[in-house]
Amino acid sequence: MPSAVLRAITVTAVTAAITVTASLVFAATPPPAKAWKSSLTAPTTATAATVHISKSSSAQIKISTGVVTFKMKLKGVLDNADLPVNSMNNTIEFVFLVNGATKTKGFTFDLVNGKGEIKTPVALSDAGTWGTMLAAGATIEMRQVRIIQVGTGEIFGVDGFTTK
Questions:
Q1: How far is CA 52 from the centre of its chain?
Q2: For the chain, which residues make up each domain, given as ranges?
Q3: What is the largest CA-CA distance in the chain?
Q4: What is the structure's pLDDT at 126?
Q5: Would you state the pLDDT for residue 30?
Q6: 118 pairs with which residues across the strands?
Q7: Are 159 and 39 in contact (CB under 8 A)?
Q8: Which of 124, 121, 116 is CA-nearest to residue 86?
Q9: Backbone angles phi, psi at 84, to 5 degrees
Q10: Cβ proximity of 60 and 97 under 8 Å
Q11: CB 69 within 8 A of CB 62
Q12: What residues form DSSP beta bridges with 90?
């Protein structure tokens, strides 16, 4: 075989190998996801909670350098008489998968006149939350958000949507 043809075949094979290798490297790198947001709604199964959400509310997570910030805005929380709720030490739990393990991060919040809110940053170095210190670029998979009523321990809100 002439050397020019052999060189052309070798260059083509090397180029193909580099292309395949580059494709595999890029496929292994997760795309950037800088935020997560969901509406909050009633659980799909009945609970013994004595409060309910009557207005559009949301949970979200924002990412910045070295920090994950958990947020929640809850509006229109009413009791069984449809009056705005005032109560302390309710809980919101964010359930997520990190490094193959399911983790739950909970935050307490107060309801004042049917409204509650949190905005809490958590460092990537917080091994208690993540199971280990996380490096930039780590992927976290959201699984669930639960809002739990103080006193009853019952879930009265979850991430999801309602149909029209």
A1: 23
A2: 1-30, 35-159
A3: 91
A4: 97
A5: 80
A6: 72
A7: yes
A8: 116
A9: -60, 140
A10: no
A11: yes
A12: 109
The answer to whether 15 touches 45, Cβ cutoff 8 Å, is no
**Residue type at 163?**
T
Tell me the one-letter amino acid at 150.
V
- What is the helix (H) or strand (E) element at residue 19, kind and residue range? helix 3-28
Structure tokens at 7: 């060189």
Please provide the size of the chain in residues.
164
The predicted-structure confidence for 71-84, as pLDDT tens digits, reads as follows 999 999 999 999 99
Instruction: Identify each DSSP E strand in 16-139 by its residue range.
Output: 35-41, 51-53, 57-64, 67-74, 77-79, 87-98, 101-111, 116-123
Q: Position of tokens 């991060």?
A: 105
Hey, which CATH number is domain 35-159, 3.40.210, 2.60.40, 1.10.10, 3.40.50? Answer: 2.60.40
* Contact indicator for 105, 111 with CB cutoff of 8 Å: no
Adjacent-strand bridge partners of 44 = none
**8 Å CB contact between 118 and 72:** yes
Structure tokens at 90: 């309710």
The ranges of the chain with pLDDT < 50 are: 5-6, 8, 10-25
Specify the pLDDT at position 19. 46
Contact yes or no for 161/57 (Cβ under 8 A):
no
For residue 70, which phi and psi values (nearest 5 degrees)? -90, 130
